[in-house]
Amino acid sequence: MATASRLLAPAPPPAATSRRLPSNRVAVARLRCCASVSPAGGAALLERDGTAVAVREFVTLDELRAAVRLRVRTFYEYAVDSIGAEDHRTALADREFDALQDRISGKMINFQRVSCINGTVPLSPSLMTAEELCSVCKFVEDGEERVVVGTLDINQCLWLPDELTGKRPGVNEDSKTRAYLSNVCVAKELQKKGLGYALVDKSKKLAREWGITDLYVHVAINNIAGQKLYKKSGFVYEGEEPAWRARFLARPRRLLLWLDMNKEPL
After folding, report:
1. What is the DSSP-derived secondary structure letter of residue 262?
2. CATH of region 32-263, choose from 3.40.50.620, 3.40.50.300, 3.40.630.30, 3.40.30.10
3. Is 216 a catalytic residue?
4. Which of 38, 125, 174, 236 has its CA 20 to 30 A from that of 90?
């Protein structure tokens, strides 16, 4: 589910195609939000076949790299016989990993503060049939193999590159209380099971901790599932990208959605 603005490379090489690869679907019970909170790191928990799905800020660089690989896997599709597809995926992941580290570390001027929020599960037999997911999105933490199955970034800044700019609370270089969600995605094997909502909910809690007053997200005008997710999360329409700009950037036209954090329940 690619539901928000993407800071990844804008277009794949000629070898890439819109043809969908054969999916390795895995039978997973519906995720259900739990009231419990993990004592380690304060991660929200979801239930999947009795297995805890942790939704939290990233902890290690190994986890961050796994999240980036999930984004590349989600946002780009290749024909089975594409030449150089794997090299292109690797190059995209390396470039985005470096850029994400720069944003998180504060090296990019426009970004005051950035964090990556992930949904992760222990590597288990129920996921083993999703071979590609397990091989590219796996990381090790405290001796345990885990898989990133959902991810997003929250960016405290006045705007995102090549995106519509939010108007609230107004441009004030001294008080950046505006934030944007980006790179929102959930592994195709676990879509439509509540994980996207849990990721956005966690980002709202973190935004409140940062003192954010206005939270934004971009969504493609033809991404109905994404729009439903954000509406459920409390976002409302603020504006949309002109058609000429979308054509110039070679992408679907995007809507800009806004959430008033002052009205969010504590």
Report:
1. G
2. 3.40.630.30
3. no
4. 125
